[in-house]
Amino acid sequence: MCPMPSAESTQASERQTDLVRPTGVDEVATTGSELIGGPLGRRALLGTSWWTPVRVIALVAVGMFALGLVQKAPCYNGAWFFGASSQYTHACYSDIPHLYNGRGFADGLVPYFDRLPGDMEYLEYPVLTGVFMEVASWLTPGSGSIQDQQQWYWMVNAGMLMICAVVIAVCVARTHARRPWDGLLIALAPAAALTATINWDLLAVALTAAAMLMWSRGRSLAFGVLLGLATAAKLYPFLLLGPLLVLCWRAGKWRDFGKALAGSAFAWLVVNLPVMLLAFDGWSKFYTFSQERGVDFGSFWLIMAQNSSDPLDTEIVNALAMFLMLLSCAGIAALTFTAPRRPRFAQLAFLIVAAFILTNKVYSPQYVLWLVPLAVLARPKWRDFLIWQACEVMYFLGIWMYLAYTTSGDAHKGLPTDGYHWAIGVHLLGTAYLCAVVVRDILMPERDVVRREGDDDPSGGVLDGAEDVFVIGAAAQRPRHAVHAGEGPQVNWGAPADGIDRSDGDR
Questions:
Q1: Cα gap 389→191, rounded to integer Å
Q2: Which residues have CB under 8 Å from 502's CB, separation 6+?
Q3: In the chain, N or C terminus with fewer CB closer than 10 Å?
Q4: Rounded CA separation 48/14 (Å)
Q5: How far apart are CA 395 and CA 391, in angstroms?
Q6: What is the rounded CA–CA span in Å between residue 175 and residue 172?
Q7: Distances in Å between the alpha carbon of 507 and those of 11, 238, 475, 493, 501?
Q8: Whole-angstrom Cα distance, residue 262 to residue 413?
Q9: Would you say 300 and 320 are in contact if contact means Cβ atoms under 8 Å apart?
């Protein structure tokens, strides 16, 4: 006689049945799964054993990160030290070993407090990233040649950044509770593996992903604290407060937005204020450097400058880039208030960061890391994600081949300027394409792969299923499975706030 299933196993089976499996709803994921045995079956016991989706994703993330380290092997074995162009022809460049010596860590200088030799004067990174770099230098053995120390410094940073990569994958997998397998997009992203150890961006990305997870759980203050820490590591995370403002405005969730804003300000000040008061010149270097930096790699501004006999001054470019960014913010706000259904938080978070990347005067190849988790949460569709990743990999190769061309002397080995401009164009078009499909999902909610499976806004926290209190234009559609149904009226622009129908028949 067969034993009766336990209550625990029954509940676990129900949870597994409720999960959205990409191999069951995504044609590209279904086809790709044939390489490892085919789509996940309905009798799969993942979730009732040790091999939960989150653990599988974490292990895959570690494996892909390790492959990224292997890709840097030619530089580790000498290209960082013995040839300027070889680190570009092998596409294995990293700032980390170069800045160990170039920013005073090899000499024991204290970031922001000790003045650097040369033109840089002080470390040009935000405070929390500077702390990360300093901690890695403490863990780096001080014996051996400077090359040995640089190699150790890169390895120590790689280990710390690998932890950040796993945190990102796990947080994304847990943000959409019914879609943990979307975290595989993070773990398998080729552009992320290639760029993970170029710089220290993964620290800010990990804190931002953790903040998004906290917001999805309704923990507004914790979200704010983590976002403030992320902003103390890199400037871009504070942009997420803009979409959150307009979403909370539309849903009337002012208290939660206030908590998020207060937590962000508090956490940022806790990190920055001591350095600001004790070493203002060193602290402000990041901000002055960003303002004074000219047009640089990866931007459409560079294409314009290199094809013009009279390039624009840096101040003019700063003003124009700011104008374009503000115009993008206004467009996103208008989209939020007029969309037939309130956009998901992840959708707007992706759009605002993508707008910053597209309009900025510089695009370093590791900036793709900013967008990867937001793209997965905004548009968890394998086809679109892989198209965008292919464009970013092409740009990754393009910039190094261009630098190889400019540093190889008369040999001119690599990609000439015109070819590099095409690589920039591919990156811009790939990012713009993903923005376009996200905007389409907002305007046509039935095309949104997340909402098509019956969810409203899994990353939205208090916004998930909430009623609208302020919209412009046509009334928003009522969210499916609204958990706060009936919590207040839906109000259109120009309609009375009390929600009373004052048509002719009621007068």
A1: 6
A2: 496
A3: N
A4: 11
A5: 6
A6: 5
A7: 54, 48, 22, 21, 10
A8: 52
A9: no
Residues 6 or more apart in contact with residue 336 via CB below 8 angstroms: 243, 246, 247, 250, 342, 343, 348
Measured from the Cβ of residue 309, the count of other Cβ atoms closer than 10 Å reads 4
Question: How crowded is residue 374: how many other Cβ atoms within 10 Å of its Cβ?
Answer: 27
DSSP secondary structure letters along 281-342:
HHHHHHHHHHHH--S-TTSHHHHHHHT-SSPPPHHHHHHHHHHHHHHHHHHHHHHHHHSSSP
Whole-structure pTM value? 0.87
State how far the Cα of 175 lies from the Cα of 209, in Å rounded to an integer. 9
Q: Output phi, psi for 269, to 5 deg.
A: -70, -40
Per-residue pLDDT tens for 322-379? 999 999 999 999 999 999 999 999 999 999 999 999 999 999 999 999 999 999 999 9
Which residues lie below 8 Å from residue 239, measured CB to CB, with a gap of 6+? 352, 353, 356
Per-domain residue ranges of the chain: 49-463
Residue 43, classified by CB atoms within 10 Å of its CB into exposed (0-12), middle (13-18) or buried (19+), is exposed
Count of C-beta atoms within a 10 Å radius of residue 212: 25
